[in-house]
Design brief:
It is a single chain. The protein is α/β, with parallel strands linked by helices. The protein has four helices and six strands. α2 packs across α3.
Length: 142
């Protein structure tokens, strides 16, 4: 009787441990970096903001969820409450800009940029709130 129980319990324990390890990996895995992905579009901060400002639904269809490269002057550099680096690229509109949130290499990026300088940033477009939002950004190597 003992051998039948152990034949059931041991594989069950192995399955539970494998499940726990898999779930731990999935929920702790960092978001895929866009640094090594090819960008679908390359445009200026003005072009991107204007596209969303003039027709947000069409811009969402075109850019939402896609990796894009945006060039522009850095208007603001800030850190969020949870420590993420955020660069705001300026555009001609006083109503907004391009908000670029960096998920990794934040210290390296903050040493390479300063307010007023122009840079090219690659990120995944998340749409428009007040600003057009790019997530998981990296400095583009051009």
């Amino acid at each position: 009787m003992k051998s039948k129980t152990s034949k059931i319990i041991i594989p069950l324990i192995i399955i539970v441990i494998a499940g726990i390890l898999t779930m731990s990996y999935v929920f702790r895995a960092p978001e895929n970096s866009v640094a090594n992905e090819n960008s679908v579009y390359s445009l200026t901060a003005n072009e991107l903001f204007t596209a969303f400002d003039e027709n947000e639904s069409m811009a969402n269809e075109k850019y939402l969820g896609k990796v894009i490269e945006v060039s522009g002057a850095i208007n603001e550099i800030e850190k969020t409450d949870n420590g993420q680096l955020v660069l705001l690229l300026s555009c001609d509109s006083p109503m907004g800009g391009i908000r670029c949130t960096f998920e990794s290499e934040q210290d390296k990026v903050s040493k390479q940029v300063s307010q007023g300088t122009t840079c090219t940033i690659k990120g995944k477009c998340s749409g428009m709130l007040m600003d057009v939002v790019l997530d998981n950004c990296s400095l583009s190597r051009k």
